[in-house]
Amino acid sequence: MPVWWNEHISKDIKLINNPPVATLLENSLQARAGHLSASGALVVQSGEFTGRAAEDKYVVKNESSQDIIDWQGQILAMNDDVFIRIKHDYFQNLHSRKRDMYIIESSVGADPSYSMGVHLLTPSPVHALFCRQIMREKRDRAQLGFFKIYHDPDLKLDPGKFGLRSSTIIALNFKTKEIIICGTGYCGEIK
User: Fold this and answer.
1) pLDDT per residue over 118-152, tens digit each?
2) Closest-CA residue to 85 (of 10, 182, 191)
3) Domain 52-190, CATH number (from 3.40.449.10, 3.30.300.30, 1.10.287.3510, 3.10.20.810)
4) Radius of gyration of the chain, Cα coordinates, nearest whole angstrom
5) pTM of the full predicted structure?
6) What pairing do the DSSP bridges indicate for beta strands 42-44 and 34-36?
């Protein structure tokens, strides 16, 4: 059965599809990505960013976004070609490092009329756990479609190669319904 990640992931990458919370917690601890508090909560360090990277947010400017975004605000424009090249680098990096990848399929929106599917692909059990906890259970039908999030907190992109402000990126493409988040350990970027 074809699934949304088949076109991107080779067979040498171990995929952990929708693991239970206990597995994500255990894998986070084994990876030394955090520790348990006295009350049993997972405590992690987000790294350089302790909040959103507001100056590193991009939206691909194309026919799907040009009339719905206030381009005079803080949102930076990116073209389709740059987004495609960054996505290519993301998957090239994923395959060169041959890391386990977590897939979380979930949804947002309580009202089925406004529900949107969210598919996260990340090497981080911490971020997969965050997504599992903050999002709703997957719905087979999402009225507003499905967004794919390609995430790697450790991937630092070359700002000069892509014309970015820094090595951190949060880029949204409304036309392809894809999001790329790289270079930040702050979990909140996923939501």
Assistant:
1) 999 999 999 999 999 998 887 777 777 889 999 99
2) 182
3) 3.40.449.10
4) 17
5) 0.91
6) antiparallel
